[in-house]
Design a protein that fits this description.
It is a single chain. This protein is α+β, with helices and mostly antiparallel strands. The protein has 4 domains: 84 residues, 2-Layer Sandwich (Phosphorylase Kinase, domain 1), CATH 3.30.200.20; 207 residues, Transferase(Phosphotransferase), domain 1, CATH 1.10.510.10; 29 residues; 149 residues, Sandwich (Jelly Rolls), CATH 2.60.120.260. It is built from 14 helices and 22 strands. A 6-stranded antiparallel β-sheet has the order 1-2-3-4-6-5. A 5-stranded antiparallel β-sheet has the order 13-15-20-17-18, with no helix packed on it. Strands 12-22-16-19 form a 4-stranded antiparallel β-sheet, with no helix packed on it. Helix 4 packs antiparallel against helix 10 and helix 6 crosses helix 9. The longest helix has 28 residues.
């Protein structure tokens, strides 16, 4: 495809690099010679510009977005025409699209997904308040800037709710992976159609994939018309019922059941974000930036350390002061009584806990597994917080249909451990313990079994073993079966112990 890189439009905008292209226009990164800044320019194809309807759509986009000034909408700076080629000048957003982020990371953290959805709903609320419907809400049209903020772009098929014509009856516009049922059928499109598409985007962020696949675009569109979107919790069990309910209501086929306004969606998403963050006890950077914008009554639901990050510094100072006081008190006691401080209490006589780093846990799903086993949650297994959990993927029918899956800890540089303990909300599953050095090994044959397979009887299970003095860097809990009537195994805490002196 030929490009116009190097061309200067109207003696002001020099096209520097091709960003993307579609059937109607091509987008370039350009330099505004007057203001000496980068901009994005959408340049209409010359052959399309001769079509009066397409030309009007293009001009309508410029008029529509020019009305909108919002932190989560990519703004229009200028518009013009150069040698018969109409163009629109947008602010240039460095970063990636939300679609690129999902492709790169897979499913996103729950709080991050909700944070992006909050920002998109705010953008749609501003557009709908100006009586503008986007009509093509999809992750490809959401840009993530370097600060992690979402910005909605490409109102190329946007239309004013007060405008008639310009779109023939029965013509479907938009991307069918995210298209609303009424849009797929060629019916009237309103702000509720954008909300349906937002629900599909949120589903994809949470699960890593769109809900419907088909042989062609028409087949996918008809699934949006006829089939309910799968329950998010079947693909992401860690999502709260509140989050799943939002997706369900956003994607309701019945317009009476679907959210009526973007403001309603925003309120519920904010509530869900506080719930999910409080449950996790921590927040991603993207979620933190959104949490700071919430009304104070909602922020009060968060733990103190998340409401007031500066409190962590104060708490750290207090903790240091407390440790110093204990040490000084102990020294005073030693001076007076001539005895040492009492030994640290071990969970079991003869065993001492091994300190594990916050990033020491890793999921293990070798072939025939798909290599994905909730790697985004493994830190929950070593965060010393029993309210957070790592879980295996969900397996239908109560069986994993493979030898097993694992979670292992990195005890760098190595240790001769003597026991591993798992804390779990639900017992009844079975596991064994393995150790390894090196890579770690990519398949089970590279690991050494240290403790035999056995069933977890309650909320805690400890496997005792001997390495015969050998130091292993990696210790793995290898899970071989699911609990009765459960689709996954959950581990709240994974602890490693050595023999005490």
């Amino acid at each position: 495809m030929s490009t116009l890189v190097g061309t200067e439009l109207d003696g002001r905008y020099r096209l520097e690099a091709l960003i993307g292209a579609g059937g109607m226009s091509t987008v370039y990164r350009a330099v505004d010679g007057t203001l000496e800044r980068d901009v994005a320019i959408k340049l209409m194809h010359r052959e399309i510009a001769t079509d009066s309807d397409q030309l009007e759509r293009f001009r309508r986009e410029a008029r529509a977005v020019a009305q909108l000034s919002h932190p989560h909408i990519v703004g229009v700076i200028d518009a013009g025409e150069d040698e018969g080629r109409p163009y629109i000048v947008f602010e240039y957003v460095r970063g990636e699209t939300l679609k690129d982020r999902i492709r790169r990371c897979g499913r996103l953290p729950i709080d991050e997904s909700l944070a992006y959805a909050v920002e998109i709903s705010r953008a749609l609320g501003a557009a709908h308040a100006a009586l503008i419907v986007h009509r093509d809400v999809k992750p490809q049209n959401v840009l993530i800037d370097p600060e992690g903020s979402a910005k909605v772009t490409d109102f190329g098929i946007a239309r004013s709710l007060e405008e008639e014509g310009l779109t023939a009856d029965g013509r479907v516009l938009g991307t069918t992976d995210y298209v609303s049922p009424e849009q797929a059928l060629g019916h009237a499109v309103t702000g509720q159609s954008d909300l349906y598409s937002l629900g599909i985007v949120l589903y994809e962020m949470l699960t890593g994939e769109v809900p419907f696949r088909g042989e062609n675009q028409v087949a996918v569109a008809m699934k949006h018309v006829r089939e309910a979107v799968p329950d998010v919790q079947t693909r992401r069990p860690q999502a709260s019922a509140q989050t799943a309910a939002i997706v369900e209501r956003l994607t309701a086929k019945d317009l009476g059941r679907r959210y009526q306004t973007a403001q309603e969606v925003e309120i519920d998403l904010e509530d869900a974000l506080t719930v999910e963050t409080a449950r996790a006890g921590q927040a991603t950077a993207e979620a933190t930036s959104v949490l700071r914008t919430l009304p104070e009554p909602k922020r009060r639901r968060l733990p103190l350390r998340l409401r007031h990050p500066a409190w962590l510094f104060v708490a750290a100072l207090l903790a240091v002061a407390a440790v110093v006081a204990v040490i000084l008190f102990g020294l005073g006691q030693n001076t007076q009584r001539g005895t040492g401080p009492p030994p640290a209490e071990a969970p079991t006589p003869g065993l001492q806990p091994i300190s594990l780093a916050d990033d020491s846990a890793h999921a293990f799903d070798p072939p025939p597994g798909d290599g994905v086993e909730h790697s985004d949650q493994v830190a929950f297994a070593v965060d010393r917080d029993k309210s957070t959990t790592w879980s295996t993927e969900s397996y239908q029918g109560g069986t994993m249909n493979k030898p097993g899956v694992g979670i292992y800890v990195d005890a760098n540089p190595g240790v001769a451990a003597a026991a591993m303990q798992a804390t779990t909300p639900h017992g009844g599953w079975a596991a064994s313990i393995y150790g390894a050095n090196g890579g770690p090994p990519s398949n089970l044959k590279g690991w050494t079994q240290l403790a035999p397979n056995r069933t977890v009887g309650g909320s805690k299970e400890r496997w005792l073993f001997s390495t015969r003095g050998k130091r292993y860097r990696y210790y793995m809990l290898w899970i071989t079966s699911l609990p009765p009537n459960q689709q996954n195994v959950q581990v709240s805490e994974l602890s490693l112990y050595r023999n005490g002196s």
